[in-house]
Known about the structure:
Elements: H1 3-9, H2 12-23, H3 37-43, E1 48-49, E2 60-61, E3 66-70, E4 73-82, E5 85-92, E6 97-103, H4 108-124, E7 148-152, E8 155-162, E9 165-172, E10 183-191, E11 194-198, E12 207-214, E13 220-224, E14 227-230
Antiparallel strand pairs: 1-2, 2-3, 3-4, 4-5, 5-6, 7-8, 8-9, 9-10, 10-11, 11-12, 12-13, 13-14
Amino acid sequence: MPVTYAMSVAAAGDVIRLAKMHLDGGLAEDGARLLAHSGVRAMQRREVDVPDKWTVSADGWGLGWTLYDWFGAPGFGHDGASIGQHGFLRVAPEAGVVVVLLTNGGDARRLYEELFGELLRELAGVRMPEPFGPPAQPPAVDLAPLTGVYEREGVRITVSEQQGAGRLVYEFVGGMKDFSPPLEMDLVPVAPQVFAGPGSGAYSADWMPVVFSTLADGTGCVYIGMRAAPKVA
């Protein structure tokens, strides 16, 4: 079962049992083998780096798991979200610690940051990164190469420059056009291709990462919520 799907329909205890099965090399609680040990290792082995290292605080991906480097301590896990629902799973394998949060209301991202930061520090000796946000003195960034229209299935993202500042409009189109009103935000530079936008209640009350990158074929793209939208205009 895909991890995101499991987190959307399972109780917290079920997600913990799923994670423990991976800690135990693919064995269920009754000793039955559900995954080959090689498959477990592959899921926890880095397969690709990610341009957006902030939305789920991940440094890279294995086969399904997001992978973390908490200041030298390895970790794996996954996040998931649906309309009004958010799930967070973090595993500190060296300490044998699993932490799960499933919620259907409130500022889920801020709760995750505060709760997991405290629990992983106390239970696993792990220090998580600071919450994402712009620096006190944002750097000067050339916005011109980044402006334009980006699209992925059901979503159009328009990036413009207004009075020297970045402006983003995120809207649902096609079959998803009535899903939600357009989201508009100013972009505060964090690095040459990384920006912070005011959080949307669905993501956070604080700051949302907006990350520009280039696909393997040279196409520019923007990552919002870990999803890549290629540049079309």
